[in-house]
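Thread: "does anyone have the structure for this chain?"

Original post by V.I.:
We have the sequence but no experimental structure in hand. Need at least a predicted one for the grant figures.
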Amino acid sequence: MKKGIYLFILICTLCAFSIGCDHHPSSSKVQGSKLDLNEASTENNEAEKQKKSQKIEVYYADVQVSKLEKNVQSITFTDATHKYSETYTALQKSDQDNLIPLWGNIDLLSVAFNEGKLTLDIHIPDEARLGSGGEALAMEALTKTFFQFSEINSIELLVDGKETDSLMGHTELDNPILRP
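Reply from O.Q.:
Generated one for you, tokens below.
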């Protein structure tokens, strides 16, 4: 029994010494840390410089869901794709109680922009489905919001990666939707 206790103490002592002897020169560690912090700081500064802010017009339904109302919001983005995803995010939430976001529960899966064509791939859960009037207003809100950007000539709307004839089964969907 005593041999077991002595052996245990010996092993613990050796472990403690081996951990304590793992010596690295402190000067190189500090220099490396400072270098890493400076590099990270430079990268953050460059990212901050590249961020742009823009005021955009976002369209929501009124409380009766009978017409669209315009609201100006500010978005921050780093490139065109990010700008369009931030615009979609703005369509999903309103900062005013009297403006109803028609795209609030519709998930954006991906955004692509190429040669004037904006492609939005969305997922529509059952609880996000609207009636025919709501669907028409939602499409109008989407097109008015995105066609304010002069570089967008058309919008292709995909549902779960596939083209569809209708967004929610009520109104016909042109694919792509062309700028009026």
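V.I.: this helps a lot. The two ends are 91 Å apart (CA to CA).
O.Q.: and The longest strand covers residues 52-61.
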